[in-house]
Amino acid sequence: MHKRNPSVPVSRTARIVAACVLSALVLMAVLASGMRGSAEPSAPTGQEAGVRRIVSLIPAATEILFAIGAGDRLVGRTHWDIYPAAARAIPDVGDGVRPTLELVVARQPDLVILYAGAGNAGVSERLSDLGVTTLPLHHDTLDDLDRNILALGEATGCQAAALRLQNRMREGLTLVRESVGSRQRPRVYYDVWADPPITIGRGSYLDALIRTAGGQNIFHDLADPSPQVSLEAIVARAPDVILYPVSRQEAERVAPAERTGWMTVPAVASGGVHRIDGDLAHRLGPRIVEAALEIARVLHPDASGLRELEIATFEKGTCR
Amino acid sequence: MRSKAVGAALLSGFVLLAGICGLLLGAAPLSPATVWNALTDPGADPAARSILVSLRLPRVAAGILTGASLAVSGTLFQALLRNPLAEPYLLGVSSGAAFGAVGALTLGFSWLGSGGLVLAGLAGSLLAIAIVFRVAYAVGRLDTHIMILAGVVVAAFFGAGVMLLLTMARGEAMRAAVLWTMGSLSGVSWEMTVALALYAGVSTLTALALARHLNALALGEETAAHLGTRVETVKRASFLLASLLAAAAVSVAGVIGFIGLVVPHAVRLVWGADHRYLIPFCFLAGGGVLVLADTLARTTFRPLELPVGVVTALLGVPLFLVLLRRRHA
Question: Using a CB-CB distance cutoff of 8 angstroms, which residues of chain A are in contact with residue B187?
């Protein structure tokens, strides 16, 4: 049985608790905020051309590096890199968002390319603390892509090849735009996800790509790059065409015509659903020009110029 | 008494073993010799050294401290609320932290970095704790029934707030927020680990000082009062300690379920309900369990990482059910 404890120790304890916990709290706050010390991620400067071991944590950046002839300097890529085929042979370091730092460091890179977004908050500082140079990139829009091709060219010393790639892509997109000409723009619904329906807004590069391909996104008024919408809103906006992307490694998707309630969308009932290659469209890399061409052909089957157009913006380039 | 000594030895050995496993195994395959060299020789291969010293070691240490904090927090809540279902997240600490962190991520404060995220989580959980305390504390008395109700309701409220933030979030912020709520030790640094060590150490020692009174409290508040315990002071102190331990753990590592609920029960089943032993044993057991689970999370699907909460629940629940069944048979 318990002894009759004098009650003094408890209240003293309580005071100690308060004091200790408070001081620990303050300490934690100070330490945690101090962590941002070397906040600004170090941009690669000086001997860029000397970069020999690159880890790319953005699949699209991997494609770009191969296209500008720096692919052979890659010593690490994400689990999700599938293109070009040579990328598969590079050691897999796992996820690109919230990466497994251990594996990245183990590759002993002199440059790590990573996505600069909320998911990677703190990762760049962490790598810098470990003595690894990082190149954090925002990679969400066509402008980002344009800029990042040059940034990657500069970081690897392949500026000339980067400029060539940039020009090739601009020319390709211009060719598609000109071939469509002033034809009437069909109203497009882009089917990212079926249930709940998720599409693209003007914040997505796909919105711009559809415009280049001679269509208009029915949810262009939404700023969110990937907004969730209702089936009713889709019906109300009556798209002429539904683009339905399927990527190769994805399990077969349920086609719109087979989904409950989707027959109420006019385009579904009238056969306006078109399957496109999700691998081309969903990587913001050199091959989006091919995706634009594919979409343009779907939207304007009568445009003879498009039928004859042959575009391959991706080729394994040489650095110099 | 003898079994307690054996228990202490067993659990210490368990933590040590778990820690060694955590250092030896990881995403990057390193041989035990390399690991030993990297840890002891400053001139060793710099890549291996930075993996061990800057990544694995703080992660293992933070794992022990997080698991320990959760288990001790759960023990205190179960004693305070005299409810076997009590666990660190019952009273809205995790929902508050999630609200803070997800808010920071989706409202565009990710430039604050990982330290900022820890602080946002801490702020959210402290807000939840303050609300629950204020509601349950009336006329100089902490009403545990009101506390449970207030806690559950506050948890639901912040949970809804998180859902709202997630629906309004843009794609990338949403992914970051969902990853945060799944819980992971991947982002911990030495600074966080040191802060957590001070925090968990001080709080656990203070809880240990209250152990006798917690034992008395188990007999009922009135009986405890007759036995000379200042019931209200003990209740207030254990509520604050338990909440702050949970808040620290959840801010650093996100929501890691199961440990705070089940480790205290498992320890109680094996070594009895005396808090003088229960608290330190839970500290050790919780720490060891989380480090083992995290090691599995890091290595099972290498190079991808599993959320550590998945491992703790998938492996821990069957083990616990076996233990329950044995005791009742």
Answer: 98, 122-123, 126
For the four alpha carbons of B137, B142, B146 and B147, in that order, the dihedral sign comes to positive
Q: Are B292 and B18 in contact (CB under 8 A)?
A: yes
pTM over 0.80, yes/no: no
Q: In what order do the strands lie in the sheet with A74-76?
A: A74-76, A54-56, A111-115, A134-137
Pick from B58, B193, B181, B121: nearest CA to A119: B181
Distance (Å, whole) CA B164 – CA B194 = 34
Characterize the bridge pairing of strands A273-277 and A134-137.
Answer: unpaired
**Cβ contact (<8 Å) for B173 and A118?**
yes
Which residues is A276 bridged to in the sheet?
A245
Which ipTM score applies to this complex?
A: 0.72
Contact A27 B198 (CB under 8 A): yes
User: At A91, phi and psi to the nearest 5?
Assistant: -55, 135
CB contact under 8 A, A14 and B105: no
CA distances B251 to A22, A51, A86, B119, B123, Å, are 16, 37, 41, 7, 9
| Chain A, nearest residue to B209 by Cα | A13
DSSP code per residue over A218-274: TTTT--SSS-B--HHHHHHH--SEEEEEE-TTSPPPPPGGGSTTGGGSHHHHTT-EE
The nearest alpha carbon in chain B to A226 belongs to B171
Residue A84, preceding bond cis, omega within 30 degrees?
A: yes
- If contacts are CB pairs under 8 Å, which of residues 228-257 in chain A contact chain B? 228
Mean pLDDT of B65-92: 92
Q: Is residue A91 within 8 Å of A79, Cβ to Cβ?
A: no
Q: For residue range A48-90, what is the model confidence (pLDDT) as tens digits? A: 457 899 999 999 999 999 999 999 999 999 998 888 889 999 9
Q: Which site among B106, B233, B298, B302 would you substitute to test the A interface, given the most A Cβ atoms closer than 10 Å to its Cβ? A: B233
Which of B51, B57, B16, B15 has the alpha carbon at shortest distance from B34? B51
E-assigned strands of chain A? 54-56, 74-76, 111-115, 134-137, 187-190, 216-217, 241-246, 273-277
Q: pLDDT confidence of B228, banded at 50, 70, 90?
A: confident
CA distance A217 to A210: 7
- Check A106 against B305: CB less than 8 A apart: no
Cβ count near A317 (within 10 Å): 22
Establish if A181 touches chain B: CB-CB under 8 angstroms.
no
Nearest CA-CA partner of B187 in B116, B246, B253, B101: B253
Q: What Cα–Cα distance (Å) separates residue A15 from each residue in A8, A19, A37, A148, A315?
A: 11, 6, 34, 57, 71
